[in-house]
Structures are given as C-alpha cells and as structure tokens.
Amino acid sequence: MPVDSNDPKNLFVIDEEATEKLNAEESEDKADKPRLEIPDQLPVLPVRDIVVFNYMILPLFVGRDKSVQAVDAALNGNRYILILTQKDEKVDDPDPDDLYKVGTVGMIMRMLKMPDGRLKVLVQGLTRARALSFEQTDPYHMANIEVIEERDVDDISVEQEAMMRHAREQSEKILSLRGISPSDIMAVLNSVNEPGRLADLIASNLRIRVDEAQAILECEDPMERLNLVNAQLVNEVEVASMQAKIQGMAKEGMDKAQKDFFLREQLKAIRKELGEMAEDSDELDQLREALDKAGLPKDVKKEADKQLKRLSSMHPDSSESTVIRSYLDWLVELPWKKMSKDRLDIIKAKDILDEDHFDLEKVKERILEYLSVRKLNPKMKGPILCFVGPPGVGKTSLGRSIARALGRKFVRMSLGGMRDEAEIRGHRRTYIGSMPGRIIQSIKQAGTRNPVIMLDEIDKVGSDFRGDPSSALLEVLDPEQNNTFSDHYLNVPFDLSKVMFICTANMLDTIPAALLDRMEIIRLPGYTEQEKVKIAMRYLLPRQLEENGLVPEDVVMSDKVIATIAREYTREAGLRNLEREIGSVCRKLARRKAEDEKPPFTVTTKSLHKLLGIPKFLKDERERDLPPGVALGLAWTPVGGEILHIEVTTMPGKGKLILTGKLGDVMKESAQAAMSFARARAKKLGIDPEFSEKLDVHIHVPAGATPKDGPSAGVTLVTALISALTGVPICNDVAMTGEITLRGRVLPVGGIKEKILAAVAAGMDRVLIPMQNKKDIEDIPADLRRKIKIQPVELIDEIWPLVCNRKDAKDDE
Fold first, then answer.
1. 755 tagged catalytic
2. Which percentage of the chain shows pLDDT scores above 70?
3. Could you tell me if 724 and 750 are in contact, meaning their C-beta atoms sit under 8 angstroms apart?
C-alpha cells in the first residue's frame, strides 16, 4: 500500500485504550526490555513498494477488501497485524506465494475511514516475525507466525563501535548533502547504542530498493545487518554527492544568467542616461529605410518587417540580434529589382564576339540568336548553355566574351570538387556562421539580377553525406522553376529567370541525366594546326609580348615558327601549352633586351631548339612499309585525336587469344568480335579455316602504360587480324576508325573531326570512317578536307580491298 507522507493528525480518531497500552509498554524499565505478548496467529496486511522495520511509525492507505478485513480483525482483537511485502507490486490479489515470508509485526495506533471507503491507518513496527504457514486466505490472510527475537550484543567491540560511528557519519553526510539540518536527527542516532536498532532506524529512512530492504529485514544478526546498511550508505553518499554537484552546476548557470541579465539592464540604463540609445534607434531607422528602398517583393517585405520588429525588441548585444541583423543586411544588398540593360545591337555584339574569339561560329550564332529574340521579346527567360570540349579551347573566356557582348556583369563560379549541397542552397540560419549559397552570393557580387553566371566544371561535381550539389542545381538550371528559387538562408523566393547561366564541362558522362536535360549542349572541338597558328598570331603572341615587357616591333615570328611550336612542343586540343611555349620564347627574348641587346629579334625554326630545347613531340614518321598484322587506327582523347598502332601476331598454339596494352572491357570485346568475324569469313578471306585450332593470336596496342577503351578500334582490330592471318600487309598511308558487328557492319563513332585532324598531322593520305559519320565531315574546315581523302564505308568487306597492299605482298613473295 502506498505511504501517505502528509499526516494531518486531526484527521485521526485517537483510540485511548490503544494509546494507554502503548504508553504502558514504553514506560517499563528500559533495562528490562518490554515483553510483547504477540499471539501465534495474526491477520496479514500485504503492502507494496515498502518494507516496514522495527520502531518505524508510518501511515498506510488500505483499500483492498482483504486488507480492510485484516485491519478490522486486528482492531477487533489486540491491534497486532503482520505486515508482509509483496514480491511483485503489480499483483492486486496476492497469494501466500506472492509474499515474502519475513515481515514486521505492527500495532495499529490510529485508524480513519475515508469517504471513498478506504482506511487510513497509522502503524508502528514492533518486532520481526516469520510467517510459518497460512491458516486462511479468505476473507483475509491469517498466518501462523514465529517472532524473531532481537539478538543481544553484550559487549560492543572496537570494530562494532567503528561500524556504528561510520553509519552515523555517513548518515550525517547524506543529510548535509541534501540540505537538511542534521542536528535533531543526529541527536536521535547518537542516543541509540544498539547495532540492530541503529541499523533498523537508518534502513527505514534510506531510499533503497524493496529487495535490498527485505534482505536487511531478514538479516537476524545485528552486526551483519549494520554492515549491510553501511554498504547502502556508501552508495547513497555517492548518489547524493552527484546530485549536489548537478544542482550546484545548475544553480551556478542560473546565477550567471541572472547576473548577465542585471548587468545588461544596468548597462542599458547607463547608455540611456548617456544618450547612446539613440544610436541604436538611428541604426534601426537606417535599416528600415534601406529595406524600403531595396524594392523587395511583397512577401519578402513582409518577412523583412517581421524580422526587423524582432530585432527592435532585442538587446543589441545578444547573439540572436547579430544573426537577424546579418540576415536583413543580405536582404538589403541583394539586387531585387536592379537589372543591367542588354546591348541589343546585334551587329555590335557580333563584332565583339569576333574580336574576342576566332572561329567558333556555332557558338556565336547561338548568342546572336538569343539577342535577337531578346530584342523582339523582352520577357523571355534566360537560356541554359553548356559548353563541352577538351581543356584549353576557350570555354571560360567565351563566357566573359558573351557577357561583354550582352553588356552584362560576369561572375564565374567554380563547381569542381564541390560536395556540399549547402554550397548551392545555403545554410539555415540556425547554424552558427550560416550564410547564403554560392548562387545568391554571385547575384550579390554582380549587383544585378540578370548577370551572366558561369558554372565552371559542372562535370566534376561530387556527392557525399552532406548531399548532392548536382540535385540542388536542378532547380537553379530550370527556366520553369528558377523564378522562385529558395535559398535556405534567405528562406524567401528569389527570381533567377533573368540570369543567363553558362556551364562548362570536359565530358558529359559524369553529368546526371536530369541535369543534362535542362541544358543546351554546344560542343567546342579541338583546334586544327592552322587555327592554332591564326589564334596565336592574333591573340596569344600579342598578349605574351605585353606581359613580358616587349613591343610588337621587338620580335619577328612567322606562321611557320608558330606551327612548329604547336607541332613539336605541344600536343593538345586547346591552346594553353602553346601559349606557355610562346611565353617561354618571349621571356628569353626579354632577357636579351634587358642585357642591352638591340631588337628586333627574329625567331626561326632553327633557333627554336636554342630557345625551347629539344622538341618534346617528334612527328610520327610514316613507316615506309607496314609488316603483316599492323594497322593504323584513330583514337579520341580529351586533348584531341591521335594515331593508334594495333599489332597482331600469330604463333603455334591451340587458338588462344592474348590481349595486351592495358585495354578496357569494351576494347577487349571488340577484339573478340574481330576474332569471331575472321573465323566466320575464313574461306572468303583466304584464311585457313582451322587456324583457331593451330594458332594462338596475340593482339597488342603499344603505349602499354596508357589505358585504352572504346568500340571505335573494331575496324582496325579486324583489319590487322586479317592481315596477320593472310600474311598480306596493309598500306602505310591509310588510317581507320569504326565499330564492328558480327554481321560485318561498320557502326558510327564519335570524335570524327579530332581523329581526322590526327590523321592529317600524321601524314596520312586516306582515312576510312563509318558511312553514318559522313555528316560529320561538314564540321571539318575545307582546307583540311583537301589534304586527305575521306572514304566512308558501310561493311567490313569493303575495307579489305581498300587497305590491303597486294603489290607489297607480291614483292615479298
């Protein structure tokens, strides 16, 4: 039964007979302990969550029918009742097995009937007792009991006295930690000289579990009982110490907060007396005026007014005040309505584009089309362009040129290596040091809401546990959605529909399909040698002369010299290395001028070796005669096209196919397809049909340290294989590219322009391409097409008659 800690004595009906009996027993000589006449049978009162000890007086609520009947039986008799604790407090109607066997005989001192039918009884523990058996369980429990007499301790030893003192000291320490005055209680404890009674007195007031309290109650030896109590006291001291420490920390924090509050209020009063409060008021007025002039949209203005109202009610030195002030500063500084006026003079824009960049006609046409539509329809949304091409072809500089042609601000934003989504959308204001994303920062940097923003290296965006920035870009790069772009920091929509986004990438494979779908792809292929020479003479050489302190009259450099630098000292699709080499030449000439040598300085192809050293790339001289089994293919690389030698040799064996040269899976599969085609057409091609059982075939692609992959070498593989098996060499003036099928078809491949440029640079006279790539020939400059014969083929059977060198074969015979 639960303990009632509130015990208003005026609620109890005092039974005078019981009181006189108790007083009579207590008035006996304490030297002769009172002998209690306790019957052998007593009614049982089961209790929950509490163990009653000797000398313990406590109020109990009695509500269960059997318990009420047991109390009535005790009151009708000698007022003694056996109090047993339940093993499981959840049992409402406990059986004898649900009760501990050892309990306390208590005397019912007072009893009060409650309005709800329950009883409130005041009980005092008298002695321990053990329930030997139960005579009845209905209408209440009646047990046969055995009183457990308290063992006497005749002479208290030093050890026992130490244990008693330790118990008293630990009790005093607990009381002190809990903030209770220990004087009165310690007077009671010090007056008790019996170990058992001291143990019972302390145990009855300890906050311990029922099973631990029951173990102390069942212990008959007084010193052993005191030892158990001491163990509980040590644990209780540790708990009380930790509670006191926690309360002290909390109080210290509260005291500091209160101190800070009073100090701020005093500072506020002092500043008010000094007239400094007016400065804060002026600052808020200035901020309010700036917000009114910023041209905020209606919903943004509503949010700004709300935050400004919060700011005015805060202390200026609080951290939240700083966050709100920074947020309002961002709202003020963003160009909500400010737009730069487009230069809609189409002819002038064309002149600017032609002035900044050579060739790139398709890109220039697309920009001029945009300007034309913009001129006719001012409400159009900005396009999303994506320039794709190898490094150094001028993708980034083209963005600057577009901004200059449009008369807009230009902002470059590098996405390479970005892995945090918050870089695009910003951080929420709940984070310390939060700020808007890079998009909003770029708008603020530009100062207008219609700049040209270049998203550089969009193909190199990564993702990790912080999110996927490319997914955040889906909203930014969608003209149908970005008019309400929401940055996490601002938490209000910002219109990006007037921004012209230009993306750059080296390849499209790593860009997600959903993001790629939002962009208009414009490819920038590599430059031909002729184009490099013209660009170098028009842009690169004048820029390097200026950077190195020279004037155009100081240096004489012909087109032939530039072509030699591009061919022998650089091998790239773009122009970066070419400009570096030209800069290296200019620096050496600048030194000669600084040493008082008189210009002009003439640079010739012979003097290049002194200025730049030994050529880094020697021209691959065309082999005079190709042995059987060697074919020349064409490959695409990020820095342009190149010639790919494929070698095939046979040796006695059992038809094993050996592939070397660091080939990728696709290229290995192309080699297997070539092998199957050769076996299927063996008779038609004049090959021994049983070669696959007699010979091992080894296919090798030189430059073994360089990874190679892709299906475009299929035509070259099958040609080299047929040449090795027939012993007929291939012409040394022909290169080829194309994917093959088992049916003998030649499928289209990419990078045709770069591959043909590589064939021309290698001195090839002919090049074989798939028939479906015939349309790509138009992208090749006319002067370049005149230098090489381009032969489209549709079937593999068409290739062998075009490439086999029968004359050389007869000479060999």
1. yes
2. 90
3. no
